[in-house]
Amino acid sequence: MDPLTLFALANGAVSAVKAGCKLYKDIKGAAGEVKDILKDLDQQFNKQYEGKPVPVEARKQLQQEKARIVELSKKDPGDIYAEIGEQLSVYFENQSKCIAIWEEEERRSKEVYTGDASIGKRALQRVLMTKKLEHMDAELRELMVYHSPPELGALYTDVQKMMEKIGQEQKVAIAQKMRDDAKQAKQRRRQLNKLWGQFCTGLIIIFLCSFAGFMFAFIIEDRITKYPHLGTSIIPRSEFARRVDEWPYKYTGR
Question: Would you kindly state where each structural domain of the chain is located, as residue ranges?
Fold first, then answer.
């Protein structure tokens, strides 16, 4: 579990919640009589440009706003409400995972660190991301509790309480998993180091055997060149064998 990935997921969920809250308020605003809302838009538009030439762009924007109101009136606020709740769960889940990972890393900071990033860089990363999460949490609470319909504020409170309980349970599980992963990684490093040592030892043995074989062959070839009377076999011919070869050979028949 990478904290940067979890942070990105939490940030994406916050953006989705903000968009959902705005859409929910727009739908609630368009929940009345659509004809009255469209009529009110026309009255405001005509009053603004009374006695003045109406720009083409302004008329185009009016038509777009009318189309948006009509489209919003067709949507069900309950669907948006459920989507906001789902994205809230995603946010709080990834937030709690980030915090759990950082707390476990803080606990392990007293151990010897062998990772790629420096200890200072990792500590700074934790501090900055914690501040950003706190800012997102405050911004989300402000939006849903104070600047949204009451039901969204209640939704935020209910989801937060539920995810706090789940987060505490997940914190223990995540910490244990990180310890198990660290232990397994340590064992894998030991096994890899052992295999590497065996591989290097094997290479050295093969090299030494090859070198010894080469030297043995070189010595035999040198002996054959310098002392041809000793024969061409690996084992030099003895003095007795050479004398036997020099004896006259007589065919005695059967």
Answer: 3-197, 200-246
